[in-house]
Amino acid sequence: MKNKDNQSAQESNPRCPDSSAFKQQKLPAWKPKLTASTVLSSFFVIGLFCLLVGICLILSARSVNEIQIDYSDVCLNCSKLRESSSNWDKECNCFAHFTLQENMPGDIFMYYRLQNFYQNHRRYVLSRSDAQLLGQDVNIQNSYCAPFATYPNGTPMAPCGAIANSMFNDTVQLFYYVNSSTAIQVPLLKNGNSWWSDKNVKFRNPTSYNLSSAFAGTARPPYWQKPAYLLDEKDERNNGYINDDLIVWMRVSAFATFRNLYRRLSRTNQFADGLPAGNYTFHITYNFPVTKFQGKKQLVLSTITWSGGSNLFLGIAYTVSGAVIVLAGFVIAAIHLKRRKKKTYFQRHPK
Amino acid sequence: MADPIRWARYRWRRLVSAEGRDGSSSSSSSSSCDKCYNSSNMPGRHRIVIPCLGHFKEEYEKVSKLYMNNRIRTTKYTLFNFIPRNLFEQFHRAANLYFLFLVVLNWVPLVEAFQKEITMLPLVAVLTIIAVKDGLEDYSKYKLDKQINNLLTKVYSRKEKKYIEQCWKNVNVGDFIRLSCNEIIPAYIVLLYSTDPDGICHIETASLDGETNLKQRQVVRGYMEQISEIDPEKFSSRIECESPNNDLSRFRGFVEHSNKERVGLSRENLLLRGCTIRNTEAVVGIVVYAGHETKAMLNNNGPRYKRSKLEKRANIDVLWCVLLLILMCLIGALGHGIWLSSYSDLTPFNTPEPDGKSTPPVLAGFYMFWTMIILLQVLIPISLYVSIEVVKLGQIYLIQNDIDLYHEKTDSTIQCRTLNIAEDLGQIQYIFSDKTGTLTENKMVFRRCSIAGQEYCHEENAKRLDSYQEADSEDEDLTGALCGSLSHMPKQKVHSCRTVSGPLNSKSLNQLPGSALGGEDGVSNVSHSRHMAFSSPIETDVVPDAKLLEKFSQISYNVYAQLEETERESSLESVYITDFFLALAICNTVVVSAPNQPRQKLRLSSLGRTPIKSLEEIKQMFQRLSVRRLSTSPVPSTKESSSSDSPSTFVSKLSIFRVKLASPAMEAGTHMANETQDTEISQCAKVSLPEPLDRVDTAAGSEHCDAGSSLQQSMSKLCYEAESPDEAALVHAARAYKCTLQSRTPDQVTVDLAALGSVTFQLLHILPFDSVRKRMSVIVRHPLSNKVVVYTKGADSVIMDLLWTGPADDKSEMEQKKIKARTQKHLDDYARRGLRTLCIAKKVMSDAEYTEWLKSHFLAETSIDNKEELLLESTMKLESKLTLLGATGIEDRLQDGVPDTIEALRKAGIKIWMLTGDKQETAVNIAYACRLLEPDDKIFTLKSQSKDACVLLMNTILEDIQKSTYAKKNHSSKLTSVFPAPSTQAPEFSASLVVDGKTLEYVLLESLQSIFLELTERCRAVVCCRATPLQKSEVVKLVRNRLKVMTLAIGDGANDVSMIQMADTGVGLSGQEGMQAVMASDFAVSQFKHLSKLLLVHGHWCYTRLANMILYFFYKNVAYVNLLFWYQFFCGFSGTSMTDYWVLIFFNLLFTSVPPIIYGILDKDISAEILMQLPELYVTGQTSEAYSPPTFWITLLDAFYQSLVCFFVPYFTYHGSDIDIFSFGNPLNTAALFIILLHLLIESKTLTWIHIIVMIGSILFYFVFALTFGATCKTCNPPSNPYWIMEKHVTDPVFYLVCIITTCVALLPRYLFRVLQGALFPSPMLRAKHLDRLTPKEQREAIKKWKEDRIGKCSMGFQDTCTCSKSAEDASVRESADHSLYIPAAKTPFPTCPPGRHVSPRMLHKPVQDPLTSVGLLTL
């Protein structure tokens, strides 16, 4: 009725605002309604869901087999040797023994773990040239690589930047003692440790007829022992910038304590089902100094599940918050019931 | 923050330009006219205008260069200076400067946090948005300017010796301009010639001030006599006038002829730019001010910048954020220094500076401080400022489109003239209202009069008005018919011309003109009445008082015969009555025009020159008056041509009118005729014959009336265009008594006096009305007595003091005194009835006296500099020793819905003051009528003659109030203890204060202010009467500054302008008194009743919306930025961002910017209907509940909590894993997005499809952006490369799990809080919100319940809405039990319920079914 009036008014009065629901602020609206039913059902549903997920996560995380071997103490002599920069070209080997009590079935991943290495330092994070790693011929002088861009004589570093320069360069081999005397090397895969997109898109070698000529005119970063095109001489597809170790290292870690995937178990022969129980030795060629920053180095062997690694936190978080939410639901229900009772109390005593 | 700068710069610019102008004009004048300044000791700031013709040519060249031409440019920018100037303007905003500083900071390599380009992005975006907005605004101005500049007008060309068409922009000072009727005036022009023989020109100033009545302008004296058009070639005078100034009401100057003779110039001679010439064939004038130097342009200060209270608060909180930012940066700097110094050696990750050097920890810490500022810059919400602007625009748009604020009759809707203080409407604590035209309609209706101490109450007229009241409320369209057909049978829609009822023929016949118009050409009548001020039928149709009409009609014939004779008792009264009506008709500035051509001045072609009709006509007239036995003595004089300035002829004519009436017989006859007419609906023609008294109107009633001569036809269709509604009302009243104002020219007024015919008065002088004198006078030469008579009309307080008081022994003096006393009594009575009173007085002067006065007055008029004082003095001399004739009472009806509005506003906790210029009784009466004062109120009147008495009085009143409140409290507490039920609710003691104008002056003194304010704070309502405009604004200022409250001033007239400007929010009423108030206001409405919706609904909405949005913005920024801050603890405080920079910037700019804006524009916590019904809800805005320091800090705390959750859940999840830095940032960002958007969802009260679309759109946009960015960006963003991260994550279940748990945990407390708040301590807001969901019936009952609850609460003293403690529960139980005893069950549907204090209204109506599904307490 009123609308009609308004419409007729509009025809004669041009200034009359039209009565659309939007302009009159009368749009049909859903008013989020905190009723007892919605509130309580939301609490219980969410709480139970969280509890369920949490239990699943805990179970899944507990199914992960993981062993972690710290070798910073075992290789103390090597690290002492490395502390003096004059000994940079002297090779130092050390061994870390460990025993697997049980079989480690499934895919086994081998990580190196660094503590206190602040890969997330701002200037460190910046110090790289993605364009160079993409194989493009760029003037790295303009990139953020400095001071690890060029040598004083003008030769550019390949790859440039602090990240590449400080690449983890310990070499680790794993030996399995079939019996007390004979040890066989556990076959480990160097490939497939990095993201497919990194390996195939983000990192490219400069194009040339061969790799060494592609890197001609550049020099290795100062901390490196060999140039980039010699990172993996055996595998053309794992050499230069597309070397998995480099790619993995270049994906800078979020925290000061982190692990990076180093090798994967090649499931062949007696390792087809994973690592059998027994004695093992890590044969480490020690290059990477960590004493300067009070760091620690570990090696980790681990299986993985859909929910990631052995970290229980997520599962616990889900369980606890699920419990809290359900509890809150009960409290609210209690308050509600109490109030309701009072209300009925009034209604029961009419006068 | 930025506005003071802007303001200062603006003032400075103005100052500079003003100085330049003044300097130039003074130098010019000194060079060209030294002599005149020496001779007349005037300050040297005058301008000389000379035509560019003849012998002035050389001087013209010199002078004219210094004056601006008529081209106007209101744009701020040109095409070339737009970018620099706009940037310059924008960087005056502190926020913009801050962001500029950040951008610059980022260019310093040592502290650089982001890529240089990225930091510029937000700033560039903001600058672009604002620049585009400014540019568009400016462009529309430019187009308008161009249009105006290219209008054509006729300018005299020297070359062609004739007027040629020129663009406005080419008009120069000194040009001669010829304008025809209906043309717009291009510049300020001194009028030199008008085709009007009287040298008058009418202009319509609607475009300037909105006033619809015509204004008269006069040709400069000395040029008036010219018969032919002025020849510019021969113009040899020079004009000197003031330098351009912005005083619209003043223009001073003189014309100096070649013979050094001077003629004064005044406002009356000036044609204003933008006005339209009306009723005048053609005019010629010379341009004196052009373009930007016109007063209108100088007055145009552009839009005003106001800062709302909410924004001021928000600015304080921005400062807190700055402090927080600095604190966080300091922590970062310290942390970095300590972290660095913990390493003795250079570590591989501590990358040295590009030059290979490493920075010592202290210096690195210092650098880090600045880096962190850049990194955490988002804490200062740049987007907040832009969003506030956008939200305000949206809010204003919605307010302007509210159909409820549209007034159909005037076809006007609300105008929001200030765009940025809409939210202030939600926080008003004090309203200062004007009375006339604001609370009342400003439709003046003649109600009563008192003549010579005799009162005439006009009861019939009152009845008529009552009928209007009914008609008004029933249907507006009916009024047209009703005004004709009389009130008694409103349903009977017979054509009005014939339905006549009531005993008095006069009454019925007076309706006829109106009905005739309505009947014949109703459409045209309606349409023209729309733009004709003060001419609605309610104002024009006055039903005369029978007794008075009789008296008047009897005496008009023989009054002047007796004038010369010794005065007798009866004749004295007769003289008084005649003079009274003459004064009503003459003493005004009403312009007469014909209604069918409202803008065509009525020139009585046959009559204009011959005030007395030809013999034949008179004969005819008398023949028709056959019932009366007229002495048809031959008319000795046939001097038709005799003009008013030969009074001797009038005297001789007097003999004609010495007629005798056989009144009793005739009266009977008319009554008879009338009755017959009542029964048989006869032809109008028939009617006209037996009713000679009313022949004029009857004749008009029908076109077929043969008797209607052309004169009478035109007379009936007279339209009066008055400057004020009072004037119109009085003229219409006089007309009802057959004392019809027929025409008015500058030097004569023609009045049609019943049977006396037209009488022309020579108009000697008019002393116009002004607010200082509060009166106006006309000086005429009475055509019959040939004496100079002064008629004065004015406020009773003024006139009463000016009366002639002679020695008391004289008999006539005694009589005078008696009249005065009785009139005073009547005046008091009128005032009590809420009528506006005016006193009418006269004075007879001798010619000698007059000439003497005229001489002195002329002297005053021609002086330029202290003209005002001299004029005042001169008028004082004239307006003294007056003889009181009588008084009038004019009613000003209350506007529709005013009492309800006032009640609602009062319930909303707003204190309302009425500031009026009217006298105390009237003001108090209107205050009662509009329920500003309640009958129960104890009213204290503050009226004292001295300051000390005033203090004393105030102290006494204060004590009195205190005592009363104490007594009341005691009483009520006793009552409650005995009967603790709402039925015995002791009404709160309420006092009201009435302050008199003079006392107001004392009260505003510095020393009395505080006690006055203390007093007023205890009063419910304050009425200030007899307040001048200045006092009004000072009262507002006092309350605003001393009490620190939000004030709103509402008014409709020019006298309210200062008050409107002083208040925090000024509301103008576009009523009948022009546009000044509207021009000065922030909001302009057409009806007072619109105020309630504007404040209670829109104010509330705007305030809560904006407050919530601002809080949300703070929350959003703090929550998001803290993620970065927490990360610093894990990256050695090195300023690393774990988020890709683009995402970081876009997060605020794109992904989360639109939902809060929509939330700020559309969120609706409570529906308009509930807000209107429960004005109490407004209180939350006044106390700034939605946005107060605690809410701000709670919001920040919540933000901190949420950011902690949002950071640490992913942190612990990924701790020790091989996650890389940007992969870690991605779930963080995604979770933050969900948290921030869902937080908004929890806070939103309503969700429309727009909200849903925007929410989903934002989330989709985020994912689409992240995915595309991740898929395409291999090297585009070198340091932080998001390549393929999102793609990787969307396939990872852990990513989703992290996002879900983070969101849940982060939002749990707020959700829980909202739930518990609804259940345990529901605020009135929440309870009201709940009402929205009920069915209309339930809603009505719930509201009723609510109101009862309120009352109950009052009796108990204030108690919180919900009491949880056991004792309180018990108390309420007891109370409810008792309560039920006293409320009959039939009255309330749920008699047993307690007053709903802790029970939801809904609960009262729905039986509980199920603990989970029933709507229990949680529903709130």
UniProtKB/TrEMBL annotation, chain B:
Keyword Transmembrane: yes
GO terms of molecular function: ATP binding; ATP hydrolysis activity; glycosylceramide flippase activity; magnesium ion binding
Transmembrane residue ranges: 318-342, 362-386, 1110-1129, 1141-1162, 1192-1212, 1224-1242, 1249-1271, 1294-1313
Keywords: ATP-binding, Endoplasmic reticulum, Magnesium, Membrane, Metal-binding, Nucleotide-binding, Translocase, Transmembrane, Transmembrane helix
Catalytic activity, as annotated: ATP + H2O + phospholipidSide 1 = ADP + phosphate + phospholipidSide 2; a beta-D-glucosyl-(1<->1')-N-acylsphing-4-enine(out) + ATP + H2O = a beta-D-glucosyl-(1<->1')-N-acylsphing-4-enine(in) + ADP + phosphate + H(+)
Predominant place of localization: endoplasmic reticulum
Classification via PROSITE patterns: ATPASE_E1_E2 (PS00154), PROKAR_LIPOPROTEIN (PS51257)
Family label: Belongs to the cation transport ATPase (P-type) (TC 3.A.3) family. Type IV subfamily.
The name this protein goes by in its record: Phospholipid-transporting ATPase
